[in-house]
Design goal:
By secondary structure, the chain is mostly helical. The protein is 38% helix and 8% strand. The chain has a domain of 103 residues: 3-Layer(aba) Sandwich (Peroxisomal Thiolase, Chain A, domain 1). Helix 1 packs across helix 2. The radius of gyration is 17 Å and the shape is globular.
Length: 174
């Protein structure tokens, strides 16, 4: 099996709810990070074989494959595909892990991976209520297995309770 390496890492500044970055579209946040990464490394954008981003609550400004949207918003080649991963709090970590797996398996040589989120635009849990206007106030209504497992609880309390342990598990496996 091949080896995977992290060539470099960049990030956008962190903000606070309603702060200076609150009106910046997630695709533009992602684009800024991608452009900075390519500028710092000198990597030819055409050498990139895939873009994998983590993002939770893929609705509103986060919808439509934010990985590819960020790549294109950066003005980069349309020939490069992208995919968005939603593993809740561990989404960005999972994106990097998937990129490494692709390289180690010999499927890809160079992948841009990371995550993007603007919590002011799309607060956590938004995807859980996105279909209320369609009559789906509870996204798990009708799932007997979910009700049996959780007692009917849903939302942040069930998605994040195991999130900390899930992140530890991901890190241990890397």
């Amino acid at each position: 099996m091949g080896e995977a390496y992290i060539v470099d890492a960049v990030r956008t500044p962190t903000g606070r709810r309603g702060g200076g970055l609150s009106e910046v579209h997630p695709a533009d946040l992602g684009a800024a990070a991608i452009k900075a990464l390519l500028r710092r490394t000198g990597v030819d954008p055409m050498a990139v074989e895939d873009v994998i981003f983590g993002n939770l609550d893929n609705v509103g400004p986060n919808a439509g494959d934010i990985a590819r949207t960020s790549w294109l918003a950066a003005g980069l080649p349309e020939a490069v595909p992208g995919v968005t991963v939603d593993r809740q709090c561990g989404s960005g970590q999972q994106a990097v892990s998937f990129a490494a797996m692709g390289v180690m398996a010999g499927v890809n040589d160079l992948v841009v991976a990371g995550g993007v989120q603007n919590m002011s635009m799309v607060p956590i849990g938004t995807a859980l209520i996105a279909a209320e206007h369609l009559g789906h106030a509870d996204p798990f209504d009708g799932s007997q297995g979910w009700v049996q497992r959780t007692g009917g609880r849903w939302g942040l309390q069930t998605m994040c309770e195991g999130g900390g342990q899930a992140n530890v598990t991901i890190i241990e496996r890397l």
